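Tokens for chain A. Residues wanted.
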């Protein structure tokens, strides 16, 4: 077997390796959904489950809870609306805000979707070592405390001019 170039890069190849793993899992999840004639994307389960719990949320609230960018959530919500899984309504307290909620279609399909997500989770549990989850949490905590950018600035004792970008 030939050597994996990204592995030879060690930490310099880290983000590419994480992306490669993520892409592989997303691709295979799409294949599972297609096999079951489910017209959904792998990352939609986060929105389904969050809105099942919270009932209604703004895009900003969803982005904050998930730690995703506002544009990323807008893109997901737009696609889910096109498929009939989400709808929005004007907030009664603030007419400038749109509240996102699950549609009747979502609520009807949710038990089947949750069953498939549980099956996928069980398969992932056989693939992903629990130590990786612990290490991933530690990495997320470190980055939440101090970003790569701020660590770089501090490590090299550089003046932070990021507000000029």
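Reply:
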């Amino acid at each position: 077997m030939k050597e994996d170039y990204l592995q030879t890069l060690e930490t310099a190849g880290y983000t590419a390796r994480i992306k490669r793993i993520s892409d592989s899992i997303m691709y295979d999840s799409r294949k599972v959904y297609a096999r079951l004639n489910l017209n959904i994307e792998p990352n939609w389960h986060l929105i389904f489950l969050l809105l099942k719990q919270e009932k209604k949320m703004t895009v900003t609230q969803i982005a904050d809870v998930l730690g995703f960018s506002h544009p990323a959530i807008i893109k997901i919500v737009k696609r889910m609306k096109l498929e009939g899984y989400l709808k929005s309504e004007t907030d009664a307290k603030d007419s400038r805000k749109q509240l996102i909620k699950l549609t009747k279609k979502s609520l009807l399909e949710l038990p089947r979707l949750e069953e498939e997500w549980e099956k996928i989770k069980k398969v992932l549990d056989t693939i992903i070592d629990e130590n990786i989850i612990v290490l991933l949490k530690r990495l997320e905590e470190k980055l939440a405390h101090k970003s790569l950018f701020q660590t770089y600035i501090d490590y090299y004792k550089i003046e932070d001019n990021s507000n000029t970008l």
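The chain has a mean pLDDT of 94. Residues 104-127 form the longest helix (24 residues).
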